Amino acid sequence: MKAQKPRAPWKAWFLAFSLLLAAVGLVASDCKAPAANRIVLWHAYRGAEEEAIAQLGARYQAETGTAVEVLAVPFLAYASKLSSAIARDQGPDVFIDAHERLSSYREEGLLARAEAAFPKYDIDRYDSIASTVARDEDGAAWGVPFALKGVALIVNTELMPELPASVEQLVKARNDGVFPLAYESESAYVHAPWLHAFGGAMLGPNDAYGFTGESARRSVAFARGLVSSGVVPNGADGALVKQLFESRKAAAIIAGPGVVSELPPHFPYQVVPLPPLRAAPSRPDPFLTVELLLLTPRTASRPEVSAFARWLASDEAAKLRVRAQVVANNQPWHDDTVVPVAMRAFHEAALRSRPMSTRAAMRATWEPVEQAIRGVMRAAAADDAAIDAILAESRRRFESARPRAVSASPTRGLVALGLGLLLTAIALYRRAKPRFWSGVRASAGAYAYVVYATIAVFVLVVLPLVAGAVMSFFAGPRHQMTYAGLGNYVDILTARGGPLFGYGSFYRTLLVTVAWTIANVALHVTIGLGLALLLSRPLLRAKGVYRTLLIVPWAVPSYVTALAYKGMFHQQFGAVNAILRKVGAEPVAWFSHFSTAFAANVATNVWLGFPFMMVVILGALTNVPKDVLEAADIDGATPWQRFSRITFPLLLPQLVPAVVLGAVWTFNMFNVVFLVSGGEPDNQTDILVSEAYRWAFTRHAQYGYAAAYAVLIFGILWLTSRLSRRWQAEST
Amino acid sequence: MTPSTRREVPCCEVRDLSKAFDQTTVLSNVSLSMKSGSFTVLVGASGCGKSTLLRTVAGLEPPTSGSIWMGGRDVTALSPKDRDIAMVFQSYALYPHLSVRENLAFGLRLRRTPEAEIVARVSEASAMLGLDALLDRLPRQLSGGQRQRVAMGRAIVRRPHMFLFDEPLSNLDAALRAEVRVEIRRLHDRMGGTTLYVTHDQVEAMTLADTLCLLRGGAVEQMGAPLALFDRPVSRFVAEFLGSPKINWLDGQVKHSSSGLHIAIGGKALKVPDRYGQLAEQPVLVGLRPHHLTTASDDVPQFATMNVTFCEALGFETYVHGTLSGMGDRTVVVRVEPSHRVTRGDTLPIGIRPEHTLLFDPRSERALDAPT
Q1: Which of A211, A450, A624, B137 is the most buried (most CB within 10 A)?
Q2: Cis before residue A180, ω within 30 degrees of 0?
Q3: pLDDT above 70 covers what percent of chain B?
Q4: Contact criterion met (CB < 8 Å) for B80 and A633
Q5: What is the bridge-based pairing of β-strands A152-156 and A252-255?
Q6: Which of A478, A390, A371 is nearest to A695 (CA)?
Q7: Whole-complex ipTM
Q8: Is the same domain home to A535 and A672?
Q9: A638/B81 Cβ within 8 A
């Protein structure tokens, strides 16, 4: 009996692992066998559209008795959730998404042909452009047109009683305190009509960068003119455009149907397609996005799903949702009784729009195009040469962000891996003390207590870490990754062949990140220390109230704070500039220069971070004995000497770990950088994590490249924390 | 006590000092005066305000009213660092992050003393206190007694006019306490500063003090030379506070008779010491210290019979507890020679040395010979 006792904990290990495996298996099998007849529909709609789709689902369920589950997935995570869920056979049966993603979904094998559910695909029932974009090169349909998305001109009929016949006429309609026109002037999507009018395209033939040449130059020069002459507000985002229109400070806006559906009742407005731009050779056609009803591979075998899909796309269902969106079906538009006037105008505008390219390269055009637009908007001078230089730079960025065809033979990697494992094993064997194994066996009972925590850490921390590290050796988009060896690292560490401290290089970003970390942590500690010392004064009244108030910034979710600060730093409408104007100072274009954008980020993060340091220091201050301070008083210390020679050194043991922790958090503070400056101007304020994010999600989905960044970040942080620990151990 | 022709300025003087925390009065109208080079001990039960008085003298607590004078100037409003004092705390309050050497040198460094001077003074103090081997250690690596010595060293190196001690021995064990007690007195004599010392331990108080100041409820109960307090306590409180074992109490009655003034206790008559002079016939509280009672012998006639209830044999002396038959049920402690083998249940003939008898008014509890 006694000899067997130490073995019992291993049984616990075994049991725990088997339970875990069983749980994983159960979850997996559960997903593989969805409840019979239940149909799952995913979409990324919000507001009125979400409501309309939910009602359709409920109605179908009520009429046919088939269970329908409608799931609204957040837009930003939609594509990645879809591809991972469908790949594991846990995704929807039917989903709705924009046509630009059709080709990448098809390549990933996430789709079934539309013929599976629509044997008689009746092209006449849908708008013809929409039907075209749903087909591949061979004419096979992969989806059914569902809704059309695009922008139109929304006019306040009180401020602008006469509908403008041209953009020029619209621009002339000036009123005091009212912008004739408002739109997201730095968004490539809303800028596209001007580009199209001057004969350009974002993406040329053979995936060439299109935002270049005369058409691009004239379009940005025109847009800059609108802003610099005060016709259009500077740097407005979607929320601001909507707000200006609702508060009657903009006579007309360029926006989608979402704005209209949220206007207050009886608001005087009218929707029209964008009027012609006389100065340009072509019409200012906006981009058209066709939302498609898409089927997943497993649908083909389930007739009830096909029936549901057919009903969703039917004219009957379209009549029910035409109040909320511009349906792609033709039939409801012939029936005046069901179509709202505004929707008809959006439909007209959509029919004139230009469908967005479905090429994967299209996704990589947005960032450089928007950088070029911003660059021109903010340049001191914008003659042709200056604009051309900015356009050339944006083209270079587009091209340098394209994945290089890196591929390497995995043999060397495997050999290195094998050698590494062997060396690790030898090192472990040599380091193990002679009684290592008997020691392990003797304390087996103790291991039983940590077995669950170990499993949790393994599953939640170690596995993702290893998966990320492995991914960093691969290149290419997710569904066709190729082994690249150390290619990603070499590419990153050689600054992609450019100058070492050039734009967007790893070293430059690292430098910014280090500056960002030092600035933040220094301010966190100083402010936290100052406040903690104030709060620890025995004579301060209402201490509890102050303490609670000062912890509030910490309690508010960081993205809420970040968005609030972004708003406060807006050049034209932000609180900071309003205050500057009040005191007679020049307003600052916060996000136009590195220093000011960096300062705005730091201000936000300092606001978020000082309470943590304050709380840590308040706690540490209670560990400073009162009589030691009194002894210093009697020994002749001035208040400053007492602080610098007694209090501060005694705080250090608690302060140093907090600083290390704070430094790691700040080093990886994605929220603030991404939400406040968003890397502006031109990704100069990006830190390493936000840079890694861009490689993964905005530049050709280079997950391996982003993973290599992540591994480098991990290495840097690991090294610094090791060094700081050693330093601390030496100093005590 | 020698009368001086010149009026000497006291090193430190406390005038009508009162201190209250919120509504609680801790000190009321305390006045005391310390001659230069004197060793004054503040003693009293816990909560009597002795530590508060010390901290007020140090400048760590502002007084509510009254003033503190040092070397002829009013220092009431000055901060501790401007009072030229050093203090040894009960917890020692060493700087935990500094070595013993730096702990000693701290005050000198703050005052920008030249480095050579610092080295000299630190080595002098460390030699005096036997700290040489410990100079590079941190306080947490020291024993309690060593820390105590460092705390004293920190006070010494500064060479202040005045040393303040706040129960410095209370964290030491009994043997060490006796040893350090002697060391403190020796240091005081050697350094020649003025010392104000707080303790609740009457043995420390008696052995260390030139002047003993007994506090009760925030006011000075009696102040004077230790033996004066012991032999001529002004009140029952003082008599009880000093002396171990405690003084014995018997109820008696002052009677006039043909042979003079005597105290009747349970039918026996006890002579009233001459110093009381004339007393009216009145009930009195009779205080007799254990060593003033003894077994009856040829020198000391039997006064009463003791019924022994308990016996403490300490080796060099023996304390016998019991009641005196016919004299009430108060427990009485008698010191007897260790050669007496006494056990519980024995009866013991007891005699009294009447010249040491202390008489107190039972209602006011003031000594009958106390100045009014």
Answers
A1: A211
A2: no
A3: 97
A4: yes
A5: antiparallel
A6: A478
A7: 0.86
A8: yes
A9: yes
Strands (E), B167-281: 194-199, 211-216, 219-224, 248-257, 260-265, 268-271
Domains of chain A: total: 3
Instruction: Say how many residues make up chain A.
Output: 732
Interface test with A, best of B55, B61, B89, B170 (most A CBs within 10 A): B89
- Residues A684, A536, single domain; the answer is yes
| Partners of A179 in beta bridges | A250
CATH code (residue A87): 3.40.190.10
Omega within 30 of 0 (cis) for the link into B245: yes
Write down the domain spans for chain B.
12-236, 248-360
pLDDT band with cut points at 50, 70 and 90 for residue A80: confident
Handedness of CA A8, A12, A13, A15 (dihedral sign): positive
Q: Please choose, from the candidates A95, A155, A133, the residue with its C-alpha nearest in 3D space to the C-alpha of residue A288.
A: A133
Report the amino acid identity of residue A49. Answer: E
Q: What is the pLDDT of residues A563-607, one digit of tens each?
A: 899 889 887 778 888 898 888 888 788 887 889 999 999 999 999
Are the beta carbons of B275 and B325 closer than 8 angstroms? no
A213 with A261, same domain?
A: yes
Query: Rounded mean pLDDT of B98-106?
Result: 94
Domain annotation covers residue A497? no
- Burial environment of residue A715 by CB neighbours within 10 A (0 to 12, 13 to 18, 19 or more): exposed
Residues 6+ apart with CB under 8 A from A325: A48, A49, A52, A147, A257, A343
List the structure tokens of A460.
């939640």
**What CATH number does domain B248-360 carry, 2.40.50.140, 1.10.620.20, 2.60.40.1500, 3.40.50.1000?**
2.40.50.140
Task: Determine contact: A630 vs chain B, CB below 8 A.
Answer: yes
Dig out the tokens for B4 from the structure.
């001086």
| Contacts (Cβ under 8 Å, ≥6 apart) of A572 | A233, A234, A235, A236, A587
- Beta partners for A470? none
Tell me which chain B residues have a C-beta less than 8 angstroms from the C-beta of A627. 89-91, 93
Based on the domain organization, do A45 and A104 belong to the same domain?
yes
- Is A634 in contact with B85 (Cβ distance < 8 A)? yes
Tell me, what CATH number does A652's domain have?
Answer: 1.10.3720.10
For residue A516, how many C-alpha atoms fall within 13 Å in the half-sphere facing its CB? 33
Out of A129-143, A306-320, A360-374, least confident range: A129-143
In which domain, by residue range, is A100 found?
Answer: 35-148+290-355
- Residue A393 backbone phi and psi in degrees, to 5: -65, -40
Instruction: Return all residues near B153 (Cβ < 8 A) that are at least 6 apart.
Output: B100, B103, B104, B125, B126, B128, B129, B131
Residues A201 and A190 sit within 8 Å (Cβ to Cβ): no
Q: Do A636 and B81 touch (CB under 8 A)?
A: yes
Task: Dump pLDDT digits (tens) for B219-250.
Answer: 999 999 999 999 999 999 999 999 888 999 99
Residue contact A628–B93, C-beta within 8 A: yes
Smallest CA–CA distance, residue B95 to chain A, in Å, is 6
In a domain, A139, yes or no: yes
The residues that bridge with B293 in the sheet, in sequence order, are: B352
Task: Report d(CA A348, CA A152) in Å as an integer.
Answer: 9
* Alpha-carbon gap: A633 to the closest alpha carbon of chain B (Å): 6
Nearest to B166, CA basis, from B49, B313, B283, B322: B49
Topology of domain B12-236 in CATH is Rossmann fold (3.40.50)
